């Protein structure tokens, strides 16, 4: 089994009287795609932002790649890639200029063409961020997490609001990042997405982890407990119809 790259023990976050994260513990293994699943308000973003050093925790222990969050947050920052909210980009710079700007911030020399190629945006090198479609914006923002060649990439709801093709396209990109050896931790509330994409998932509800395993094992457990879907399942669903009719390829022109 791969070594542990993120270790969370008894993590607590209170906002005043409100307990947003109630003492959760979990490990993320190096090289996996780990999903934090849960409804809105479950505490997913809070948890991620604490690990990303962007939010103070109330208590608990967080170790990232051997660095203790309490003692070496600067070391953690150096080895992670974090997706910014898209509003964080200068709207009037083109994609090449934005990457050059980030290169300057990180003191790196990632060639813009190489990065844009990776996320399938080479032909948009001279386009401004505001001119991109939703899926392209998401792919670009994933690209910016890779500029400092991170060991771990954090993606908070990377596919929310995307159409089915753009979601699939982003899944491929996330797998490509993982296949290069980078650990990915993401949040989603799309269970089909988690089932296809994640090696392991933690289901979080009201600040507590209520399940943690591979999607396969969680499904098997449920089936073994006697659960059956209430009606016979058809061999396709409406999303399959949509994808068949509109095609698998991206259409963002
Ligand atoms: P998720 O990402 O799973 O939707 P969040 O981590 O954003 O959930 O939020 C968890 C809970 O904490 C929610 O009930 C939210 O309203 C609350 N919360 C988040 N940020 C703050 C804040 N800065 N102040 C007070 N409450 C907050
Ligand atoms: Mg959130």
Q: What's the CATH superfamily of one domain, by name?
A: P-loop containing nucleotide triphosphate hydrolases
Major beta-sheet overview:
6 strands, mixed
Low-confidence stretches: none
One letter per element, helices H and strands E, the order comes to EEEHEEHEHHHEHEHEEHH
The first-level CATH class of one domain is given as Alpha Beta
User: What is the number of strand segments?
Assistant: 10
Bound ligand species: adenosine-5'-diphosphate, magnesium ion
Architecture overview:
- The chain has a six-stranded mixed beta sheet with strand order 6-7-8-3-9-10, with helices on both faces. A four-stranded antiparallel beta sheet has the order 2-1-4-5.
- The protein starts with a strand and ends in a 7-residue tail after the last helix.
- Helix 3 crosses helix 4 (112-118) and helix 5 packs parallel to helix 6 (164-179).
- It has helices spanning 44-51, 73-78, 95-106, 112-118, 134-144, 164-179, 191-197, 215-224, 238-246, and strands at residues 4-15, 18-29, 33-37, 59-64, 67-68, 80-82, 152-156, 183-188, 200-205, 208-213.
- Helices cover 34% and strands 25% of the residues.
- The protein has a domain at 4-79 and 189-246: P-loop containing nucleotide triphosphate hydrolases (Rossmann fold), CATH 3.40.50.300.
- It is of the alpha/beta class.
- The mean pLDDT is 91.
- It has nine helices and ten strands.
- Adenosine-5'-diphosphate binds next to strand 2 and helix 1.
């Amino acid at each position: 089994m791969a070594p542990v790259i993120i270790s969370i023990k008894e993590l607590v976050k209170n906002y005043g009287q409100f307990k947003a994260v109630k003492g959760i513990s979990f490990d993320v293994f190096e090289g996996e795609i780990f999903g934090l699943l849960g409804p809105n308000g479950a505490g997913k973003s809070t948890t991620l932002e604490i690990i990303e050093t962007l939010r103070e925790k109330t208590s608990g222990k967080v170790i990232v790649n051997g660095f203790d969050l309490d003692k070496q947050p600067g070391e953690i920052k150096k080895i992670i890639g974090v997706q910014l909210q898209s509003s964080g980009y200068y709207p009037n710079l083109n994609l090449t200029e934005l990457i050059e700007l980030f290169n300057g911030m990180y003191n790196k020399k990632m060639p813009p063409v190489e990065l844009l190629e990776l996320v399938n945006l080479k032909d948009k090198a001279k386009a401004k961020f505001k001119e991109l479609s939703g899926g392209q914006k998401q792919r670009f923002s994933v690209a910016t997490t890779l500029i400092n060649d991170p060991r771990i990439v954090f993606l908070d709801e990377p596919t929310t609001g995307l159409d089915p093709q753009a979601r699939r396209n982003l899944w491929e990109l996330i797998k490509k990042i993982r296949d290069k050896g980078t650990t990915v931790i993401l949040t989603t509330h799309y269970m089909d997405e988690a089932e296809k994409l994640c090696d392991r998932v933690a289901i979080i509800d009201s600040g507590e982890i209520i399940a943690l395993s591979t999607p396969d094992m969680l499904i098997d457990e449920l089936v073994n407990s006697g659960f059956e879907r209430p009606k016979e399942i058809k061999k396709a669903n409406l999303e399959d119809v949509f994808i068949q009719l509109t095609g698998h390829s991206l259409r963002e022109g």
